[in-house]
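I'm stuck. Please check this protein.
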Amino acid sequence: MRLDGKVAFITGTAGGIGRATALRFAREGARIVAADISDANLDTVNLIRSNGGEATPVRADVSHDADVARAVQIAETAYGRLDIAFNNAGVMLADDADAVSTSEETIDETLAVNLKGVIYGCRHAVPAMRRSGGGSIINTASFVASMGAATPQIAYTASKGAVLSLTRELAVLHARENIRVNALSPGPLHTELLMSYLDTEEKRRRRLVHVPMGRFGEAAEVAAAALFLASDDSSYITGANLAVDGGITAAYVTPE
């Protein structure tokens, strides 16, 4: 098993990418600390346990530094170490639109969860990984961090672009400490988060027309990429952005 003996802290585990990744990591031998604000998080933990894995649920709002600190402390208390942190929790709010019309409240909430939540996850994972002798931090960005979205979502796009910049800087800062920091950039996925945002068939068609593979991705496909970044298979990779996007950035982003 590729994560045998490892301890993984994952945020946003109540559904979507977070749940798929928690289940995949557990199958690969990791002990999971699953953090979310939703009661559905218990379903994820119960699924892991019913399949013979180890998991501890934590109710945490990643936009609050104290919640993230407590979750990482629980990981170390329960399992004695921290090897993997997947800062995945995020929001995509329905009224996130262009710079003119998006409300201050939507901007603040989006940045608090999508950006500050990642910063807090890294802030508390790094000292824990130092105590463990190293580790892998994975931050969920998005294809929109590299290109404009056909459907405007200015706060979400800005938050994900910041996650990429943060990831690169932390990778450089902690490379000599055996702490790797990488980003995952999913393309359009068939998850509740995106489907609730692309809430009409017209919006979904507008998004899919740009995807060379012609379909929405699945959360399990992103989980497989996260497994690669979490495991020793990626031991010489840090500061990278792994696009799991059906080819959309390859089609539209020109290398600098």
